[in-house]
Amino acid sequence: MKHDIKYMSADEAVRLIKSGDHVYIQGSTSIPETLVAAMTRRGDELRGVVLYSGFSVSDREAPYCKPQYKDSFLVDTCFVSNNVRKWINEGYGATTPRFLGEVPALFRDGTWPVDVVLLNCSRPNEEGYVSFGVSADLATSATECARTIIAQINPHVPFSYGDPVIHISEIDAAVEVDDPLVEVPTAIPGEKETAIGNAIAEIIPDGATLQIGVGGIPNAVIRALENHKHLGLHTEAMTDGVLPLIEKGIIDNSMKKVMPGKSVACLALGSRRLYDLMDYNKEMIFKDVAWTNDPFIIGSNPKVMSINSCLEIDLTGQICADSIGQRLFSGVGGQHDFVYGSSRSEGGLSFLAMTSSTKGISKIKPVLTPGAGVVTTRFQTNYVVTEHGAVNLRGKSLPERARLLISIADPAFREELDRAAAERFGYSYLRLR
Length: 433
What we know:
The chain is an alpha/beta fold and about 425 residues long.
C-alpha cells in the first residue's frame, strides 16, 4: 500500500526551524545527522535556537558546536554525550541536571517547550507507520509535544515495537537518507572487569530481572550469567551484551510481572546484529523512558538486579558517576531510577561497580574529589563491587561502611584510607579494627 509522504531535501526541511525555536534532536546511536548538518548550514541566519538532547553516541563532534555558532545554537542537554562534551566543558553549552526518567515531564508540562523534533525513522510499514525505536527514550515525549516533526526516512533504522511508532501523516517534512546507524563495539572485559563480573553474578539469583548498564563491567556480568535460568530484562539500554543470553534462552522473561515474555528497554546501542534482531521483533519492546525508568514500575518486577558503573565513591557510600571533579563527563542516566526501583522490588538488589584504582589513583576516597557530583546518595547505596570483592552497605553505619569499602580498595591505598577513616569517625571506627 502506498502512502503519501512529504519528501523534500534536508535543506528544504530545516527551513521549518525558526530563530528562537526549541529543537529536540533524537539520540542514542540514531542522531539524524543529515538533518543536523542541514540545520547547521543555516547557522548564519538563525539566532537563539535551543537544542535539547539526551544520551547520544556519535562518531563525530556535533557540527553546531563551533564558536561561530555560539549565538545561533544554544545547547542544553540532560546528558553530556561525546558529541557535545568538549563544547560544554569549554563553557559554551549547558547541561540541566535531571534524572533521565523525569525529563519527559519537562516536555509535557511545558517547562521545556518543544517547537521542532528531528527524528531518524524506519521506512513505513504497510499501514503507513514508521518507527524511531532505536531511541524511544526522550524522543517519544518530545515528538508528542512538538509543533513540527521533521524526519529522516532511513532504511538502516529498524522497525521497533512499543511507544516510538507514528503515522507518516503526522510528519511535517521527510527526507530520504541512507545513513548507517553508529555501531558501538562490545567492550571486552579485562582481568579486573571479569573479577567484578564474577563477584556480581554469584549474588544474582535465577529468575532475576536485569537492568544492565553499558561497558566492560556490565558485559563481564553478562558473561558470568550463562549458567543462570529464567532471567528477565527491563533496562534502559539494550546492548549487544545481552544477545547471547537472549539467543540461548537464559533471558526468557518468564518470571517478570511487568510485560512478561518481553525484553523491555528505552534505547539501543550496539552493532548491526542487534539492530537487525530488533527489526519487527515483537519480543523486544521499546518504551518512553518515563515508563521504563519509573521506580514504581521497576519495583513491580521481582528480584530486580540493577547493575551500573561509577567513577568514584567516598567512605560513607556517596557515589559519583557523572563527573571527574568539576569536569562533566556524562550524566545521571537511569542509575538513580534503577537503584531506587530495585529497592522497591521483592528480593531486589543494586550493584555499583568500578575498578579500585586507575592510573595510580584510588577510586575509593576519604571524600569525593572537589566538584564531583553525587548521583547515588549514601542513603541508597547497596552493593559496591571492585575486583577485590563485593560489600553490602545496606543497614551499615558510617564507620562500618568505611571498613567494608577499605576492604575492597586497591591494597596500595588501604593504609591511608584507614588513617582517614580513623580521623573522621574516631573510636566508633577504631573499635572495628
